[in-house]
Amino acid sequence: MGASLSNLTEGAGMGGPGLGDIPESCVACVFMYLTPPEICNLARLNRAFRGAASSDSVWENKLPSNYQDLLHILPPDRYLNFSKKDIFALLSRPLPFDDGNKEVWLDRVTGRVCMSISAKGMSITGIEDRRYWTWVPTEESRFLSNLVYLFILTSSTRTSLSSATFIHASIWLLIN
């Protein structure tokens, strides 16, 4: 079975056509329907697949329509002569902005834009009194500090913030 599979990938092993004989443009059309990880895995099969996987038309389809806006976060010399595949790879890594309080990246499978906002990147509304919250440095957070509520349940606190809002805010901020 292994010998016949290698004949398929190399082509013309026993005189018949193989995967290597498929035109690169046809392979590129098929790649339009695959996810980026699938494209990268198939690019290892042979030269035709590798060439199609490097095609800008394939990767243009995987980038979001606003990817140029994401590139403005970076200095132009970091992506000046990049192919679309290289731009996708660059944008798939977290890009910090807003003094490092926010990060944006592309999901490697779907190509959708993801964003992470640190607690310092958010504004705290409703509680301006610093007795109720503080910044705590931590190595476990991606942003190296977390917001911690010092909540004292009194009747006035309970009426000013609903418990659903507090739980939602707590979970969001502790994920940072």
Automatic annotation (TrEMBL):
It comes from Populus euphratica (Euphrates poplar). Transmembrane segments: none annotated. It comes from the Eukaryota. Residues 16-62 form the F-box domain. SUPFAM superfamilies: F-box domain (SSF81383). InterPro entries: F-box-like_dom_sf, F-box_dom, PP2-like. This is F-box protein PP2-A15-like. The gene is LOC105121773. It holds the Pfam family PP2.
